């Protein structure tokens, strides 16, 4: 692996839950992010995936300093950025930029595209002196595939995909090393999603960028990610290289997510288990003891309520060796029942999950 430029350790973000108007009394906490570790290599893409509400945006916001973590460290090139302030913080922030989910609401409707893309230069004038700005913004428009002559137009004059290109151009303005893209294509039509992902792919090599690419659907991050982290209720439950996660998922939650991904090949579709999870995601104010996924898991046993499973390579997987071994936070991690790579093979009924259709 390339040397990590970002190392996140024990990241926690709890929002206090208060009652009362005058004497605000803390009655609990929303445990939005509840102990997350990951790293990002130079020029690498880490996909972060999970259902709505599992804490993805909160992770993203702590990385770009829009939220202060409750605990944990975020090291950029070895330095903990949660402890920085002033000039040092400003220079780090320049290098870690965010692209937001919804291009319809994240662009100020009263600003021209030129002002939107050039706004980061107000904070960092050293990157683009006043006289140089217009040309720099036009270059950025060109780089993201928009006509540089559109510089004086307003956001409403663009389509959703074009607006997200504007958001990306703005993210590139300060020539960052890392872009945190929070569901950058979720608000776009399916037909446009691939174009924006392809653009981001191209920009990555052109500008030597590392991406944190967030999505709620595993199929979206598949093509762009080198590694994937699957989140559930504020934690990473499984993480590994792209092929390890997609072809050998061992956490029941990842298996359920993958079973919902559309498969184009009809034969593979026919032979695939479809896992329907029972119940809803528990509230982050009231997280189940032990394994937080156990209330929806068909494999859950007594141990799961008592012991928090560590995110680690399962012992049997380690013993078996091979390139597919990767971290999974499950006491009963196993590679069944997803058989994406061998659709003809039949899993014995006793190994089938209870929720199978
Ligand atoms: N400012 C906040 N105050 C209280 N709770 C919050 C705040 N921001 C997010 N949350 C809660 O934290 C949890 C995780 O939210 P979020 O990070 O937005 O998830 P995701 O991006 O995966 O959908 C949710 O339950 C959400 O309601
Ligand atoms: Mg979100």
Major β-sheet, in short? 7 strands, mixed
Taking pLDDT < 50 over at least 5 consecutive residues as the criterion, the unreliable ranges are 337-357
Which architecture of the largest domain does the CATH hierarchy give at level 2? 3-Layer(aba) Sandwich
Number of strands: 11
Going by CATH, the homologous superfamily of the largest domain would be: P-loop containing nucleotide triphosphate hydrolases
Ends apart, CA distance between termini: 40 Å
CATH topology of the largest domain: Rossmann fold
Which percent range describes the beta-strand content?
15-25%
Strand order in the largest sheet: 6-7-8-3-9-10-11
Mean of residue pLDDT values: 89
* Principal-axes shape call: globular
The hetero molecules present are: adenosine-5'-diphosphate, magnesium ion
Percent helix, as a range, is 25-40%
Query: Which structural class fits the helix and strand makeup?
Result: alpha/beta
What is the N-to-C order of secondary-structure elements (H for helix, E for strand)?
EEEHEEHEHHHHEHEHEEHHHHHE
Q: Radius of gyration, Cα only, in angstroms? A: 22 Å
- The DSSP helix count reads 13
Kindly provide the name of the CATH class of the largest domain. Alpha Beta
Estimate nothing, just give the exact number of structural domains. Answer: 2
């Amino acid at each position: 692996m390339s040397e990590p430029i970002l190392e996140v350790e024990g990241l926690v973000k709890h929002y206090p839950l208060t009652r009362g108007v005058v004497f605000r009394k803390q009655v609990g906490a929303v445990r939005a992010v509840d102990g997350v570790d990951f790293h990002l290599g130079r020029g690498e893409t880490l996909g972060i995936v999970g259902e709505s509400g599992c804490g993805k945006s909160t992770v993203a916001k702590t990385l770009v300093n829009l939220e202060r973590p409750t605990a944990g460290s975020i090291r950029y090139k070895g330095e903990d950025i949660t402890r920085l302030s002033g000039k040092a913080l400003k220079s780090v922030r320049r290098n870690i930029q965010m692209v937001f989910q919804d291009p319809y609401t994240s662009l100020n409707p009263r600003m021209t595209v030129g002002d939107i893309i050039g706004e980061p230069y107000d904070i960092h004038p050293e990157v683009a002196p006043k006289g140089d700005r217009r040309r720099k913004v036009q270059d950025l428009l060109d780089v993201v595939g928009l006509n540089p002559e559109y510089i004086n137009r307003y956001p409403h004059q663009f389509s959703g995909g074009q607006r997200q290109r504007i958001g990306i151009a703005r993210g590139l303005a300060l020539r960052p090393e890392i872009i945190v893209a929070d569901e950058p294509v979720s608000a776009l039509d399916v037909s446009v999603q691939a174009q924006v992902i392809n653009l981001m792919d191209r920009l990555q090599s052109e500008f030597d960028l590392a991406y944190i690419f967030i999505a709620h659907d595993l199929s979206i991050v598949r093509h762009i990610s080198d590694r994937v982290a699957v989140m559930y209720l504020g934690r990473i439950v499984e993480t590994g290289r792209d092929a390890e996660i997609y072809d050998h998922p061992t956490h029941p939650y990842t298996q359920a997510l993958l079973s919902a991904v559309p498969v184009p090949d009809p034969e593979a579709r026919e032979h695939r288990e479809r896992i329907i999870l029972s119940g809803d995601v528990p509230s982050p104010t009231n997280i189940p003891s032990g394994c937080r996924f156990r209330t929806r898991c068909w494999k859950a046993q007594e141990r799961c309520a008592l012991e928090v499973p560590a995110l680690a390579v399962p012992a049997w997987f380690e013993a078996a060796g091979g390139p597919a071994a990767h971290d999974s936070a499950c006491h009963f991690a196993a590679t069944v029942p997803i058989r994406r790579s061998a659709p003809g093979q039949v899993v014995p009924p006793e190994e089938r999950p209870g929720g199978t259709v």
